[in-house]
Amino acid sequence: MQNFSNTNIQDESFSNLDISKQIIEKVKMTGCTFTGCHLSETVLSACLIRNCRFINCDLSLMRMPQTNFHETSFKDCRMMGINWCLADWEARSLIKKIRVGYENCLLNHSIFSGLDLSETQFVHCKALHLDFEGANLTKAVFRQSDLEGTRFVKCDLSEADFCGAVNYSIDASQNKLHKTRFSLPEAIALLHALDILIEDADQGL
To answer: What is the mean pLDDT of residues 50-61?
Structure first.
């Protein structure tokens, strides 16, 4: 079993590590890679995760009170039921604010309410029933992701990219849309919340 009593871990690689249900406190990890690791129901408390990569890991139901992420990526990971609001989202730098990115991940039933997620990438993810209420999603990328049942309420979606995303439902009157990118035919869903009638141009001819 890996001992995380060391408070400063740098440039380490971990494979098939099982630390599920453990409590890890006040550890700084920089430049680390986790591959095929199990962190389900793990508690990361007041940790700093900087420039780390998680590949093909199970992090479902992980808790992260006051843990700060900086330029950390998750690829091919299972990450269901996580309340990301518990993490520390205060900016550590006035220059770069990119904290996390997700590629081909399973994110179902996770909470991102009220967070600053500008420029965050959710690419090719299964992202069912997420909650983004009040989130800043400017320049966020949702390309090729399945967003069925996901809540976008009072979000800033300026310059966000939904090209190739499917099953989303976005009320234009409840969110800020400015140069937001959508692709057909899914963009038709934006009209569902409007009090309009859409008819076939050939109807009645």
So the answer is: 97
